[in-house]
Design brief:
Elements: E1 12-18, E2 21-27, H1 33-42, H2 45-52, H3 60-68, E3 72-79, E4 85-93, E5 98-105, H4 114-126, E6 133-139, H5 143-151, E7 155-159, E8 163-169
Parallel strand pairs: 5-6
Antiparallel strand pairs: 1-2, 2-3, 3-4, 4-5, 6-8, 7-8
The structure holds coenzyme A.
Residues 47, 50-51, 102-105, 110-116, 136, 138, 142-145, 147-148, 151 line the site of coenzyme A (COA).
Length: 171
């Protein structure tokens, strides 16, 4: 499955108020490249590990792929006033109707509903692109991610030593 680059660019999907800050959930644009790099570079190693299962130090190739691939639906959570990116969620389109999901929120902004808002927005929009099922992996002790998966209507499918494979149907 392939789409144009940054297919959701600039599209506002949701808005929420977090501690008095207006957070906009919108499609990722190529112009977000530098801002995205700043976002990933300020995350703690532990957070990066929870998302990627390894500690990445050099995010340029990853960010480049996010903004230039024709197989990714990506969105960001952005502080409306400062323009700071505080969260990113993406679906990497796989086999027909199937995509791998990933999501990450800045530590200081976690637990305030941003992850849920991004995931629900991406779920809504993914249907437009023919996605019928999203899968992903989460660490077994990642309670926030596990609760998010349940909230999206997903289920754990397989358990590995420290990892859970989950699936979220989109119909
Ligand atoms: C997982 C993650 C994306 C969730 O985003 P978030 O903005 O922190 O999550 P939300 O505030 O929307 O909350 C999601 C759920 O976790 C629960 N939750 C939030 N903080 C919690 C805490 N400290 N302890 C337990 N549950 C918590 C919420 O109540 C909510 O569940 P509910 O709707 O059933 O009540 C975010 O924590 C993160 O970036 N973690 C690191 C990267 C990662 O784990 N990615 C997932 C693997 S791809």
């Amino acid at each position: 499955m392939s789409v144009k680059r940054c297919p959701l660019c600039g599209r506002v999907l949701d808005k929420l108020n977090v501690d008095g800050r207006e957070i906009i959930i919108r499609g990722l644009c190529p112009e977000d490249r530098d801002n995205l790099l700043r976002f990933y570079e300020k995350l703690r190693d532990e957070t990066i590990y929870t998302r990627f299962f390894s500690v990445i130090r050099y995010f340029n190739p990853y960010v480049e792929r996010l903004v230039s691939s024709t197989g990714i639906l990506a969105i960001v959570a952005e502080d409306a006033k400062s323009g700071e990116i505080v969260g990113v969620a993406e679906l990497v389109l796989d086999r027909d109707g199937v995509a791998e999901g990933g999501i990450i929120v800045l530590e200081s902004m976690q637990g305030k509903g941003i992850g849920s808002a991004m995931a629900l927005a991406l779920k809504r929009v993914a249907r437009e692109y023919g996605v019928k099922m999203v899968y992903g992996y989460i660490l077994a002790d990642n309670i926030k991610a596990y609760r998010l998966v349940k909230k999206l209507g997903g289920k754990p499918k397989s358990y590995y030593s420290s990892m859970i494979y989950v699936e979220v149907p989109l119909d």
